[in-house]
Amino acid sequence: MAENMIWAPWRAKFVLGKKEKGCVFCKRIKMKDSIKNLIVYRGEKNIVILNKFPYNSGHTLIVPIRHTGQIEKLKTEESIEFFELTKLSVSIIKKVLKPHSMNLGMNLGRSSGAGIPGHLHMHIVPRWNGDTNFMPVIGKTDVISVPLEPIYKSLKKEFDKYGA
After folding, report:
1. What whole-number distance in Å separates Cα of residue 90 and Cα of residue 99?
2. Among the options 59, 100, 121, 123, which is catalytic?
3. Rounded CA gap, 68 and 119, in Å?
C-alpha cells in the first residue's frame, strides 16, 4: 500500500470506470454544451473546454474542432482562432479565478506526455502561490481545491459575453 494517500472520490470514475473508446474531444464536440461535456465556449474552428481530470482547479483546454494531432496541419484560420482563444481564455481565467500565474503548453505525441495524442490541444493551467508544495513535489499527489461545476458556471458566464 502507498505510504501517502489522499481520498479523491471524484477520480474513482476515471480510475475504476470503463475507458472511453475513440476521441474524447470529437465526442464532446458533438454534444450540446453543458456541464456534461464541459465546453465553456464554441468558436467557428475551436472549442474551449475544461479538463475533466485537471492538474489544478480551472485547468482549461483549447481544442480544434477538426480532428488533428499535428500543429503543422492546422489551417491558417484554425491557427488564428486557436491562439486568439488561448489569449481570451487566459484573460477570462485571470478575471474569474485570479490565479497568481499560469502554465500554458502542448504535448505533441504520446512520448511527450499527450494523453490524447491524436487530437491537438493547448493546456492552460492556473497556478497560485503555494499550490506546488510538498504534495505534488514529494508526495507525487495533486490537490484540486475547487470542483468542476462552479468553475464551469463562472467561466461559461464570462465566455457567454463573447457570443459564439
Report:
1. 10
2. 121
3. 5
Domains of the chain: 21-160 (3.30.428.10)
The set of cell numbers assigned to 137 is 513535489
CA atoms within 13 A on the CB side of 147: 7
Which residue did the predictor score with more confidence, 52 or 143?
52
Mean per-residue pLDDT of the chain:
83
Which region, left, alpha or beta, applies to residue 109 given φ > 0 means left and ψ of -120 to 50 means alpha? left
Helix, strand or coil, per DSSP, at residue 23: coil
Which candidate, 51, 84, 79, places its Cα nearest to that of 66?
A: 79
List the Cα angle 71/89/151 in 5-degree steps. Answer: 120
pLDDT at 91: 97
Active site residue 121: yes
